[in-house]
Design brief:
heterodimer, A: 94 residues, mainly alpha, 55% helix, B: 402 residues, alpha/beta, Peroxisomal Thiolase, Chain A, domain 1, 2 domains, 14 helices, 14 strands, 36% helix
Chain lengths: 94, 402
Amino acid sequence: MTDSVRDTVIGIIAQQAVLDPAEVEMTASLDDLGIDSLGLVEAIFAIEEAFDVSVPFNANDPSENAEFDISSVAAIVAAVEALVAGKDAAEDRA
Amino acid sequence: MRRVVITGAGTVNALGQDVPATLDALREGRCGIGPLELRDVERLNIRIGAQVRGWDPEAHFNRQDIALFDKFTQFTILAARQAIGQSGLVFEDALSIASGVVLGTAGGGVNTWDDNYRAVYEEGKNRVHPFVVPKLMNNAAASHVSMEWNLRGPTFTVATACASSNHAMGQAFHMVRSGAATVMVTGGSEAMLCFGGIKAWEGLRVMSRDACRPFSLNRNGMVQGEGAGVFVFEDYDHARARGAEILAEVVGFAMSSDAGDIVMPSAQGAERAITGALRDARLNPEQVGYINAHGTGTAANDKTECAAVAHAFGQHADRLMISSTKSMHGHLIGGTGAVELLACIMALREGVIAPTIGYEEPDPECALDVVPNTARDARVEAVLSNAFAFGGLNAVLALRRV
């Protein structure tokens, strides 16, 4: 599952950055990739749609985004994995 | 060129359903923001707004009117009734032909769109009410004001998102100043607080879930409001000749486009509108005592606006007061500049500067006197009202005490 989450997230980021997925380094920041604020909210929307999760992100307030770290591609992948795991656990309980 | 004065004012907004109630709230620093009461609110992530509470169209309009008036038109008509009533003007004969209406709105009849999309998409109906189009069109409010008061001159609607009202009032100012009209009824309104209206804004992730705290370090976004502000702009000589009470003089207006980004504001674009308004008004920066800020409470707007003001005013930026009343009445989008003009008039006439409420922590990037939390008594000579819209469109008005 984890690989597919990573691949999907990288695919979404690559699309926003107009890059080939292979060119997206895990250590890169969104700035490095040339993704601006509109690109970021579009990427988050695409992530929510792809995984059917709700990403806690407010463009105004970095502190509110502590639970969703966007400092690098790897951080975003990890944050999405956590959201997807949380959702699967909730579904298992249900 | 003619001088232009304001001889009537009216409003409906979350702080009050007329000017005196609104000014009381602005003086007291009262907050009109609270939990939203609307259909499907449980499906929204953003559940606060500055709603007009206890709005009862039947108290103001007959059944035929209600069938034709979206909420943004209802708010407008009520505000226009107050403004024109205060002015004492009756539009007949030559005056009727020399007078018009220019109003701002960003969305027009958003509630009408929302209700009728529900009917056809959600409820699967194949028939809608015959008045959907005349009810939702952006010029409906301007046209109904024109019909109700027999204003037969230039009449139209301006839509520039959050700067709509300021652009509209700027046009009204230009028309009276140039002699193209003797009187212009102007201002704007917005009624976007419905499921679809808020859902659209949620998508941008710039809305606060808890409060509007402009200029405060811990601000976390804007809060939407609704309502209308309407004013009577009149040729000074005409107003003097009939002995009208003058609320303030409109002395300058300027607009600019950032030509940059569709949502991120530019300090240079804002500054050009501010300095342009000063130049147009023939005001020295030192004469301006108060600015009603655009002050949305987003991270981006507030620091950009402060940078623009600091640059435009130089040393005087530290001596003037700048407050965002959106902290109280919310962001009325296309109607916001109109309601905010009331705070400008209050500053000039009553010497009371409305505060920025919800202010908790200083932000070094917003290091101006933002009149935190409590209104202040101060005699001011001239004021500015800023509006900076998505799309990078800026509109700044300058007013003076008469």
